[in-house]
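Re: weekly structure request thread

Next one in the queue (272 aa):
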Amino acid sequence: MSALTFTLKTQPKQSVDMSPITPDLLADKSLAEIQAIPLQCGNQQLRADALFEITGSDSSQLVIHSSEKLNYLGAKLGLKLKSGNLTIHGNTGAYLGLQMKSGAITLHGNAEAFAACEMAGGLLHVHGNVGDFLGGALPGNRKGMRGGTVIITGNAGDRAGDQMRRGMILIEGNVGSYCASRMLAGTIGVMGKMGVYLGFGMRRGTLLLFNSPALSPTIQDCGSHTLPFLKLMFKSMRGLPSKFAQLENNRVRRFAGDAAVDGKGEILVFGE
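Done, posted below.
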């Protein structure tokens, strides 16, 4: 069977809620039923086949040719079934992988704000850049990402990992300001440069950095160390499609904080 493929007929003028289009939600539906799924587009509902040309039959391998107007792609993936793959070609809107539970999402393009928002499991791999609040919480909520793995081959915006509680975010490019703000647990790796206020309000968790950051006075320098536990962390990364899978050196300069909130987080800088 060929992958179930959605190709936009025309670029929508308003934002489209794509949350009804995931592998697990389409598993029991015929092609006619899928074509009739209502999608919220601005202040009106449109049938899926009014927006997309739909081909293929294997809904467990879903392919979407996207645009910036498509929001909530892969939202709650794995909520009903514990598998499913979503491949996206082109840029996407906000809330990519919102509250994702399992499965895999691969984006060949850029995503806007709140990618991996409140993610709980699975793998999100973005071959491009993402906006603000990567792995953060929905506005008004206090629980950000709490499981799964996110790989960003490009850059991330501000507040990456805000209120993060578990899981792993690996950013091969640069990251904006307030990275790991209010972080409670989990791991964030950044190979590029960081913005200001790194680890603001950080209570626990680990940051892996490859460039010297500008740190606030409430982040304490603990000196250089060889940390054996990093070997175990590197081993867990070996199978990932990322540059982080090649890490070996466990000699780092360690910083702790944020002391302003009695934080016990750690910032580990390689090559220091």
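The first helix runs from residue 23 to 26. Residues 113-270 form one domain.
Next request, please.
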